[in-house]
Known about the structure:
Helix 5 runs antiparallel to helix 6 and helix 7 (about 125-135) packs across helix 8 (about 140-165). The chain has helices spanning about 5, 25-45, 55-60, 65-70, 80-95, 100-120, 125-135, 140-165, 170-200, 215-230. Mean pLDDT is about 85; it is low at about 1-15 and about 205-210. It is an all-alpha fold. The termini are far apart.
Amino acid sequence: MNASTRAGSPNEPAGPLDVPLxxxxxxxxxxxxxxxxxxxxxxxxxxxxxxxxxxxxxxAGISQRTFFRYYPTKEHALFVDDEGFGTVMxxxxxxxxxxxxxxxxxxxxxxxxxxxxxxxxxxxxxxLRVRRLIHTEPSLLALALSNEAEHSDQLTAxxxxxxxxxxxxxxxxxxxxxxxxxxxxxFDEWARRTEHAGEAGVSLGAEPGAPARVRDIYLELRRGLAxxxxxxxxxxx
Length: 237
C-alpha cells in the first residue's frame, strides 16, 4: 500500500509496515538491531564519549569493518529504527508529488508509523531507553535534530515542487514544521505517560488504565490545534 492510498482521514488506521523479507535482508536487519542494542547498552553504561566503535563491534560479535558497512559513526547506531521511517518518508514524498493533499500525505505517513509502533509493545522499553540517551547525550541529540531537519527539508522541497511556482516557501516550511513538532510532542507525551505508569506499577499492556497510544495522543493534539486554527484565520488586533 503506498502513501497515496493510505493518506486519508486521520481517523483511518494505516496498514502495518511489515512486508515479506528474503533471508539476506532479514539477517541484515537482525545485525543492524544487534549492533544497535550493543551500542545502547554501552552508551548507558559508559557514555558516548567513552565508547568506541571497537567496543560496540566486539559486543555485537562483528568486526570494525563490518560495523562501518552498517553505520557511518557510533552515534548513528542508535537510530536503527529510522530505516522504517525512511521508507514511509519516501512514500510520503511520492504521494505529495503525485497530487495527494499535503496534510493528508504527511499525516498518512505519520499515522502509519504510529499504528506500527503502537502494535509493538515489545519495543516500547527500548524506545524509552533511546529517548533517555538522546536527552542526556549532546552528540546524540545533535544527530537526532540533524536527522529531523533533513527530513523536514525533504518534505518541504516535495511540497514546493508539487505546488508549483506560486507556492509560498515559508508557509510550506511552517506547515511541515508544525506537523513534525506535533508528532514529536505526541511521542514526548507518550513517553511521559508510559514512564509515569511504569513508576506507578501499571501494566503497559492494552488494558484499562494503561498508557494511551501515540496515535490517540496525536489525535488529541490535532483536535486541540484545530480549535485554535480558526483564530489563525483572523487578522491580529
